[in-house]
Amino acid sequence: MIMKHISYAELQQWQKENKDIQLIDVRQPFEHAEYHIGGDLIPLGEILQRMDEIDSSKTLVFYCKRGVRSQLAIQRLSDHFPDTEMYNLTGGVYGLKP
């Protein structure tokens, strides 16, 4: 599987264009509460149990603090959603936090 990445600028452009995406934060609830860029909170440890909350008809964009957990989420889900486009937010939110 080749991991696809998206920059924050590209993500913002997709959102402006109303591209059919689902943004998913795979961090812990306390991290999401401190700072987030939107999307649905589905922690990495719960990702397989909560697959019903993921809309595989959309392009999926995953993010975390630095991009490691979101890559793991994509790896875990790739067999379950083989035809779904999935992207990892490059560098996570670490560099975006004001």
List keywords for this structure.
single chain; 98 residues; alpha/beta; Oxidized Rhodanese, domain 1; five-stranded parallel beta sheet; 3 helices; 5 strands; globular
Structural overview:
The chain is globular. It has a single domain, classed as Oxidized Rhodanese, domain 1, CATH 3.40.250.10. The longest helix is centred in the last third of the chain and has 10 residues, at 68-77. The protein has a 5-stranded parallel sheet with strand order 1-5-4-2-3. It has helices at residues 8-16, 29-34, 68-77; strands spanning 4-6, 21-25, 40-41, 59-63, 86-89. The chain is built from 3 helices and 5 strands; from the N terminus they run βαβαββαβ. It has 98 residues and is an alpha/beta fold. The mean pLDDT is 94. The relative contact order is 0.24.
Low-confidence stretches: none
**CATH superfamily label:** Rhodanese-like domain
Shape category = globular
What string gives the helices and strands in order? EHEHEEHE
Largest sheet: 5 strands, parallel
Q: Give the number of helices.
A: 3
Helix coverage percent: 25-40%
Distance between the termini: 34 Å
In total, the number of domains comes to 1
Under CATH, the topology can be stated as: Oxidized Rhodanese, domain 1
> Mean pLDDT, as a whole number?
94
CA radius of gyration is: 12 Å
Strand content: 15-25%
* Architecture per CATH nomenclature, i.e. the level-2 architecture: 3-Layer(aba) Sandwich
Number of strands: 5
Specify the CATH class. Answer: Alpha Beta
Strand order of the largest sheet: 1-5-4-2-3
Helix vs. strand class: alpha/beta
